Structures are given as structure tokens and as C-alpha cells.
Amino acid sequence: MTHSNTGAAPLLLENLSLFNSPAQCWDILDLACGNGRNGLVLSNLGHAVIFADRDGEKLAALEQDRRFDPSLNKCWLIDLELPACDPLAGRRYDAVLVFNYLHRPLMPAIKAAVKPGGLLIYETFTEANKAFGRPNNPDFLLKPGELKSLCAGWEILQSFEGLLEEPARAVANVIARKPLSSDDTEQ
To answer: How far is residue 97's CA from residue 90's CA, in Å, rounded to a whole number?
Structure first.
């Protein structure tokens, strides 16, 4: 399958080989998935993806997408930012994808949701993005080095912080593997 027209994030497309284990069907969480563009790529490789978002209309449209396989995929309507809510408690995944989303209080729960040996693939905007327009609210922008420091103690497979083009934007991204010796409750 070609992925050039999927609209999926280049970070994911350039690292699909991480998911090429023919004997393993990964359990993947596409967090704040929007239209599901990233999770659908992995679903099409035979992995089980849970698409989580608070936008019911986007999730309903995703379920109608011809690439959505109800035998592998599930949609989860959830507001991840409700106060005193821990939506990821007790949930564990082989990989968690997060693109263009930042809610700092959820960060420890995201890390805990990754199984030992599992992957976190995260990319979102940095404070330098203010020069390019939206988002420009500091609550939604990473501070310098913040994303990489989130994964301290994990194996960093790839990390980038800087400017990207088409469209011009300032981002940080990381692909990190949780240590096998990690306690599943580690935050």
C-alpha cells in the first residue's frame, strides 16, 4: 500500500518499519485522533487501533471511512480534559500516538498507558510556533526541550525540535520506547 496520499504525519510514515512485526498485531491508541489519519495507516497494516477524540462528528465520519475496519478498530468518544478525570487509568497499549495535541495534566497518564517495551510517538507545536500563527496559546505549546525530557529514562529512537515546512510550523517530536523493566504504573 502506498501512503503518500493518506495525509498521515511524515514522522509516522517514515517510521512504519517499527510496526513491521508480522507475528504481532499491535494494540494502538490514537489519542485526540481528529480524522484518524495516523491510526488508519497502522490499521491498514493489520494493527488494532482505538481512535480517541471528543469530537463525535469526526469519530462518526471515521467509522464511515472505507479504510476503517470495525473488526480491528474502535472509536472512543472521550473528553480527555475533564477535571478530576483519569480516562487512561488501567488502559495499556503497545503504542500511543499523539499528534498536534497537548494537555500537560494528561502527560503522566499517557506515559503510564504505554506497555513496557511499547512506543510513544508524539509530535506537537512548540513555543516558536507563535511566529507562524495558530496555535499560539502557551497552554498548547511545548517549552524548549519539554517533550524529550518527558521521556527521560526511555530509549529515544528519534527526536527533533525545530522548524518544518509545508506548512511552516515549529514542532517537537519524539519516538521513545518504554523500558521493559518499567512498572506499568510508572508515571
So the answer is: 18
Q: Is residue 38 part of a domain?
A: yes
**Is residue 45 a part of any domain in this protein?**
yes
CATH code, 109: 3.40.50.150
What is the model's pTM?
Answer: 0.91
pLDDT digit string, tens, across residues 141-181: 999 999 999 999 999 999 999 998 888 899 999 999 999 98
Q: Which segments of 23-151 are extended strands (E)?
A: 27-31, 48-53, 74-77, 93-99, 114-125
Residues in the chain: 187
Phi-psi region of 123 (alpha: psi -120 to 50; beta: other; left: phi over 0): beta
Integer Cα distance of 111 and 12 in angstroms: 18
Domains held by the chain: number? 1
